[in-house]
Structures are given as C-alpha cells and as structure tokens.
Amino acid sequence: MAALVAGWIYGAHALSEGYDAVAFYRGDQTDVHTIADRIPDTSMRDVAVAAGEKWLAMWNATRDRQMPIGVGSMILGAAMVLFAARSMAGREGARSALVQVVLVHAGLVVAGYFLTSAAVRAEVEFHLRLTEGLAQTTNDPAVRERADEVLRAVFAPLTLVIQTTLSAFIVLSLTRPRARAFFHQAPSGPLGQG
Questions:
Q1: Dihedral over Cα of 69, 71, 60, 151: its sign
Q2: 180 three-state secondary structure
C-alpha cells in the first residue's frame, strides 16, 4: 500500500513538473530583471541578470528537448496517478500498468537530465548569483526564499537520484511475490473488503 501511495504522489509530482515545463514555453517565463532588482549592489545585480538571461537563453535553446520531456512527464504523471488509484481500488492489471509507467518515467527522467544538463547548470548559476546578491540584505525575507530555491536548484543531480530511487522502490515493492499474490487475490472492490 505504501508503494501505491508513493506512486500516486510521485505521479502528481511528475504531472506538476511537466506542466511547469510546458507553461514556461507557453509564455509563463520568469522575468529575471524584476527578480534581480532586489539586489542592492549594482555590479552584483548585473551579474545576476546576465546569469538569468543565459539561463533563459539556454532553456529556449533546448525547447525542442524540454517541451517533449515536459509533455511526456505530464502524460506519464497522469497515468501514474490513474493506475495507482485503480490499484488501490483493486482493479485487475492496474498494478502491472503502474510498474510499466513508473519504469518509462524513470527512463524519461534520466534521459531528460542528460539531454538538458547545460540548461540545468545555467539555472543553478542564476540562482547562486541571485542568492549571493541578496545575501547582502540579511534582514530581507527574500533571502530565505531565494536560499530555498537555490537548495532545490543546486541539488538537481540529487533530485535525479531521488527520483530514480523512488521509481526503483515502487517497482520493487509492486513486483515482489507477496505483492503480486496480494493483487491476484484482491477483490474487485475496495481493498478493505477482503
């Protein structure tokens, strides 16, 4: 059951990430000048703006890779949510479909990371420069907010490891003999009825 809940949550996360990538290319782009305007030092602000413009340029340059990866993540995330819910309801075949979708999504995550690593590095650089400039105003609550963003961005490789490990956990949990036996004996109704 924990693997099914993890699969549902992971699917919702994949759906959200995919939507964010698609929304970026549909006009929901970040305005780096507005964000960098909070940096008091003009030279540091200029460095942050330059890093932000490089990040946006890299993302736009990798549109032909980022957009299909985002769409794929949305579709696979929705499928994970659907199959996890159907598995929780004891539907026949939903568990094996969930396992297959999780494996395909893990492959997409790994491929996406390596196909867009330059854009990921440019984003990390922008957030580092931004936080460096904002750190001068220690009482500014934006520093904490930006520090959180940097932590998320800096650990992009860690995110890859976490996502593939979570995928492996879900797949291993749902393919164990005990789990397969449970699903083959599961009633067609909710799991609590047997």
A1: negative
A2: helix
- Residue 106 and residue 53: Cα distance in Å, rounded? 30
> pTM to 2 decimals?
0.68
Of 184, 30, 171, the closest CA to residue 107 belongs to 171
Q: Judge whether residue 28 has pLDDT over 50.
A: yes
What's the gap between Cα 101 and its chain centre?
16
Quote the CA–CA distance of 64 and 75 in Å, as a whole number: 17
- Provide the 8-state DSSP code for 137: -
Cα–Cα distance between 121 and 112 in angstroms, integer? 13
The one-letter amino acid at 155: F
Structure tokens at 65: 């890779």
CA dist., res. 116 & res. 37, Å (int): 28
